[in-house]
Amino acid sequence: MPVVARYATKKQNDAMAEKHETFPDGIDANHAKTVNGLRAHASPLAFLILGGLVAIAMTGILGGAPSPVAVVRAPAASLEVKLARPLRSGLFFETRIRVVARRDIAKPVIGFDASLWRDLTINSHIPAAADESFKDGQFRFSYAALKTGETLEIKIDGQTNPPLLGRIVGTITLLDDDVRLTEKRVSIPVLP
Description:
2 domains; 11 strands; 42% strand; 3 helices
């Protein structure tokens, strides 16, 4: 078998490829010939597609942007909700709820519509609620009384399960025992 020079010319490479008679299965002399023209270079279309994907990713449409904070002010309290959006399948995410009492609240309760936690795994809920229940289609978490001006801050860590796709819609409610004080309707897109 002849030794191919490291810097052989195109003609030399093609001639050696044609002389070489035994190629592995599925390979023939055409595979060893030098490629000419546009086929010898990367396609500009590949760079355009890759550049487009990078540009779309930089907009935050596909996730990764800072989570928006929604604030609802009511006479009894203000409710701040910070949710990751959009969610992606398998993504770990954080939700923050902040309640600032504008008057005394004897038994603050945060309620999450069951539809908001469909196909989600909740990993942690800090601080832990004094009582947990399910009532009127909501998961409800009760906390210690709040005096005027006091703040309750809740951090919830979760993960989206693979079957979740589309949009989750529901309401996060602030109650004083069973009396609704305020609520925030949320709609979160879930991407694959």
